[in-house]
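Sharing a chain and its predicted structure for anyone who wants a worked example. Both blocks are below, sequence first, C-alpha cells second.
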Amino acid sequence: MRTGLSGKAGKLLSSAGGAVAVQFVTAGGSLVVQSLAARTLGASGYGAYALFFAVLVMITSVQTSFVGDTLTVYDRFDPKVRGALIWSVAGTVTAGALVGAVVSVAMGLAGAAGTALFALLVALWLLNETGRRIFTARMEFWRLTLNDASYLVVTLAALGAAVGAGADGSVELLLAAMCVGCVASIALARFRLPGEEYAGAPLRGTALREILGFAWWRSVQAGVRPGALLLARIMIAAFASTAALAGVEAARLLLAPAMTFVNGAGWFLLGDFAKAEREGTPMPARAALRACGLMAGIALVLSLGGIVLVDWLGPVVTGGSFDVNRTALAGWGLYAVCFACTLPLASLATARKKSRTVFAVRGVESAFGLVVLLVLLAAAPRHAALAPYCLGGGGLVSAALLWYLLRRDDPRPVETTERTAVYEVSG
C-alpha cells in the first residue's frame, strides 16, 4: 500500500512540476518581451504596451475558462460536448478579436495599423491558447513547455530580424512579432497533438446549453481578477499617468516568479480535482486547504526574493529609463500570497461545477478593492502604488468563505481516503 501511494505521489509531483514549469516558461517569455518593451519604449510607451497586454490577458482569461476549463472538466470526446466546444472556439476567437479592436480604438492606444495588429494577435493568441489547454486536459504539462518555448524563440527571432533590418522599436513591432510567435506555436501544437484532438463533430444537437451554463459563470469568474487588474491600470493611467503605471507594472514584473508559480500550481490542481470528480473519487476540502498553505509559503519566499534583489533586478527590467515603485513592489508580494491562499479552493469549487459561487465571492472582493482604489486615486494620484494592496487584501476573506462553503458540502465517500492519503504523502 505504501509503495503504491509513493508511486502515485511521485506521478502527482511530476505532473505538478510540469504545470509549474510550463507557467515559468510562459511567464519567462512574457517577462523577456515586456522587459524589452520597458527598455526600448520608455515609460509612456511601456505604459501603453502594458494596457494592451492587460486587455489581452483579460480576454484570454475569459476565453480559456470558457473553452479550456470545459475541455478539462467535461468529456471532450463526447460528440455533443465536442460540437459545443467547436462552436465555443469559433465564437470566442471572433468575439475576442472584435473586443480587442474596439478597446484599442476606444482607449486610443494605437493607430489603424496597431489596432489591426492587436485584433489579429488576439485571434491567434486565443487559437494558440486552445491548443495549450488541450495539452493541459491531457495532463501533458512537460510536453507543453516545448510549445511555449517555441513561441518565445520565434517572437524574439522576429524582433531581432526586424531590428536588424533597420526597423525602429515600437508597440506595433512588438505586436507583429508576437503574432509570428503565435503562428509557430499553433503549427507545432497541431503537429504534436494526436489527430483525435482535432476531430470534428456534429454541429447540431450539441450540449451547448449545458456547456454554456458551466462555461459562462466559469469564464466570468476567471475574468474577475484580470478584469480588476485592467480597471486598476486604467484608473492609474487616468488619475496619474502612464509613466506612473509603468513604475507599478515594473514592480509586478519583478514579482512575476511568485505569481507564475501560483498560476502553474492552479492549472495542475484544477486538472487533478476535475479528474477525481470524473472518476468518482472527489477530493475533500482539506486537500485544497493544504495546497493553500504550501503555495502561500512558496509565494512568500519568492516575493521576498524579488523585494530583496530590487536594486539589482530593477535596472535589468527597466533599462534604467524609469524607477520601480517600491511601495507597489511590497504590495504585489501581498497580492501573490493572498492569491495563493484563494486559488486552490477556487479550483476545487470549479471542479465541483460551482463556478457561480466562486464568481460571487471573487466579484465582491474585486469590486470592493476597486472602489477603495478609486477613492484613494481621487484623493491623490500618488496613491497609485497602493493598487496591489487594494486588489489583494480581500483574498484572505475570500479564501475563508470558500473554505466554509466547500467544507459544508464536502463529499464523504469511502473512495476519497486513498486519494487524500496521496496528497498527504506529496504535500
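Comments welcome. The radius of gyration is 21 Å.
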